[in-house]
Amino acid sequence: MAKIRITKEFVFDAAHNLPHYDGKCRNIHGHTYKLLVTLIGEPCSDIHSPKCGMVLDFSDLKQVIKESIVDTFDHALIVSADSNSACLKQFQEEGKFVELPFQPTCENLTVYIAELLLRQMPKNVQLYSVRLYETPTSYSEWVVTDNQ
Ligand SMILES: [Zn+2]
User: What pTM, to 2 d.p., does this model score?
Assistant: First the structure.
């Protein structure tokens, strides 16, 4: 049977800053991130299965992404663990704060998301790509064929 790619799109808002960066993104600012997750697999051919004809039920994909990515990052401040600002430390006590062991660029967040999802893929389905838009015209993309 033919392999098919399916994609689901998510949107979340988050703030971040890029310490040591030589441009204005060194300051805390926000983005409306758009996340596209694409899986590849063969549609279920079991006519007795409620998932017949599906690679994966879109609602199952939605649940995984929502729980592991969107709920974590939406309306959070995302910072690198090596940030040492007193302002950030204060925010950590009062707000939704995600500290990551890397600079929270679009590229690094994309890899982080891909690696999180790779650990959660159901059998018979493969993560094909993760595309993360930081602005309507800028995105980074992880693709399985680039990383094998
Ligand atoms: Zn930014």
Answer: 0.92
